[in-house]
Inverse folding.
């Protein structure tokens, strides 16, 4: 449940405590009064950034990922099983179209319940996992596991389930429960292919610490995974033939492997040196494009398959080129000062407003601020001429000065940007707690400068 505390939401863990602890930012350890809670507090920057259109596009991407999982070798065999199950039910039980739709919905909901439960569990345990994700060793381990699973999708080794589990999942039950059970157990049968992809998504959801968002993410994934099977279930009696299996399925499997490699880079990137933060994603995109587009020798009967490979390979190369070009053309950034009471006092005495950026390497919106907004030429110019820019890096917890500043400025998490006027008082109406593009940030700077002009 989301509880409003001032300007943002705090998600409570199963014991009722605020769910900000995954990034380890202690905020308030004072005794609690009536109706309050205590404990360590931190932020879930990614979950706060998933709002509005960002949420819509993210869920659409996850839905598309669920659709793509249907083309992996482990899920594709479930298609004829689904057709056989529902087609036989329609013939045997003379099921009406309405009842067949009800059976299909039970099938789809069974799949959604299984995966959504995984998402909620991951989010509820996200405090422990998220706190561990500050540790470079843990980040390296997570990335390593994702790469190992990716090598399985590349065909270097096979992940197989015990035969007993597969046989249990393949058992047939009658009635609506039979359709529900098929959906519940589809995840078991498909685990060798979708398991690695779901593992990366679970890690991401756990870092958010929001059980409702975790449910929504995996429910969306499940709908994407189950929707084609639902359609096949409804029209199973009218299907005469299915696309033939072939090399194209192995190509899709390797595509998902490269997705996992990309997720591994995403997790390890915050602790890499600046050069590797840019170079590693570019290298992965180049390698994926060359492999999927031209080096892979898998073939299919469809004439569209070679075009598909070329399009995907070209898209990866364009993406890599865009990243490296953007990095090469990026001008100088804002010149930051470390926090000092003396610097702030001198700025106030000169009627110069102060901007304090509370930042962490593992915070995606923080890095977006740094790479986009704080490298914009006009933002850099105004920051140099008219403001004192201070950065407080809270990537590592436990610094006494940082703990004092977090308490002093009532920082609930990162990113948080504090705007202090020439009178030494914070302009709380300007405070930022999420990414803002350069044009909008310039408006905040103008609002702070106007206060300075009025004082003069």
């Amino acid at each position: 449940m989301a509880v409003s505390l001032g300007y943002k939401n705090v998600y409570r863990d199963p014991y009722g405590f605020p769910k900000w602890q995954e990034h380890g930012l202690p905020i308030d350890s004072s005794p609690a009064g009536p109706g309050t809670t205590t404990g360590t507090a931190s932020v879930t920057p990614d979950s706060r950034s998933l709002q509005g259109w960002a949420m819509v596009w993210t869920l659409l991407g996850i839905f598309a990922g669920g659709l793509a999982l249907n083309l992996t070798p482990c899920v594709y065999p479930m298609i004829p099983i689904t057709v056989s199950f529902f087609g036989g039910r329609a013939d045997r039980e003379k099921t009406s179209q309405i009842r067949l739709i009800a059976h299909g919905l039970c099938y789809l909901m069974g799949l959604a319940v299984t995966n959504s439960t995984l998402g909620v569990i991951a989010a509820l345990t996200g405090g422990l996992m998220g706190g561990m994700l500050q540790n470079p060793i843990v980040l390296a381990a997570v990335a390593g596991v994702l790469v190992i699973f990716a090598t399985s999708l590349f065909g270097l080794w096979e992940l197989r389930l015990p035969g007993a589990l597969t046989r249990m999942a393949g058992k047939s039950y009658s009635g609506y429960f039979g359709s529900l059970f098929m959906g519940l157990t589809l995840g078991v049968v498909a685990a060798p292919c979708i398991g690695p992809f779901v593992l990366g998504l679970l890690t991401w959801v756990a870092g958010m610490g929001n059980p409702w968002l975790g449910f929504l993410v995996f429910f969306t994934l499940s709908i994407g995974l189950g929707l084609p099977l639902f359609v096949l279930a409804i029209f199973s009696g009218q299907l005469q033939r299915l696309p033939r299996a072939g090399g194209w399925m192995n190509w899709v499997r390797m595509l998902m492997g490269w997705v996992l490699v990309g997720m591994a880079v995403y997790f390890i990137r915050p602790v890499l040196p600046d050069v590797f933060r840019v170079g590693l994603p570019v290298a992965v995109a180049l390698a994926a494009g060359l492999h999927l587009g031209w080096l892979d020798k898998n073939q299919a009967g469809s004439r569209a398959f070679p075009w598909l490979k070329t399009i995907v390979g070209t898209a990866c190369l364009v993406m890599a080129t865009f990243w490296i070009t953007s990095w090469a053309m990026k001008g100088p950034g804002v010149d930051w000062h470390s926090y000092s009471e003396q610097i702030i006092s001198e700025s106030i005495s000169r009627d110069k407003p102060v901007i304090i950026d509370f930042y962490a390497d593992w915070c995606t919106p923080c890095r977006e601020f740094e790479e986009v907004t704080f490298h914009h030429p006009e933002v850099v110019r105004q920051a140099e001429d008219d403001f004192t820019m201070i950065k407080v890096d809270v990537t590592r917890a436990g610094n006494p000065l940082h703990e004092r500043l977090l308490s002093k400025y009532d920082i609930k998490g990162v990113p948080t940007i504090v705007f202090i006027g020439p009178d030494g008082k914070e302009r709380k109406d300007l405070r930022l707690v999420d990414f803002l593009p350069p044009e909008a940030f310039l408006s905040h700077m103008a609002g702070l400068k106007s206060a300075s002009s009025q004082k003069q």
